[in-house]
Design a protein that fits this description.
The protein is of the alpha+beta class. It has one domain. 60% of the residues lie in helices and 23% in strands. It is built from 2 helices and 4 strands. The strands form 2 sheets. A two-stranded antiparallel sheet has the order 1-2. It has a two-stranded antiparallel sheet with strand order 3-4. Helix 1 runs antiparallel to helix 2. The radius of gyration is 19 Å and the shape is elongated.
């Protein structure tokens, strides 16, 4: 069973892997002392120039955790939805 998100299709297995990775990242950011935030400038990307700054976890860590928790909830809801759709499809085909 595949989930569609824009142009990309994602399987339940893909979602489960993303859920595990997001859970891991939440733990990392909860325990971090500092967070390095970076952007890549398209003009200088060929030269590998990355703009970055270091922030303390107190400055940004909680915000990142909340963002990841929202993503995690959305992924879990999608997995649950796909599971319900799979059950319905199986019920319709019968034994």
């Amino acid at each position: 069973m595949k989930a569609t998100d824009g142009d990309s299709a994602m399987t339940v297995d893909d979602l489960m892997r993303q859920i595990q990775e997001t859970e891991r990242l939440i733990a990392v950011y909860r325990d971090a002392n500092e967070v390095i935030v970076g952007t890549e400038d398209q003009i200088y990307a060929r030269r590998g120039v990355i703009n970055r700054t270091t922030l303390t976890a107190a400055e940004i860590g909680d915000q990142i955790v909340r963002i990841l928790e929202r993503r995690l909830a959305a992924m879990r809801a999608e997995v649950q939805k796909l599971g319900v759709e799979q059950e319905r499809a199986a019920d319709q085909t019968g034994p």
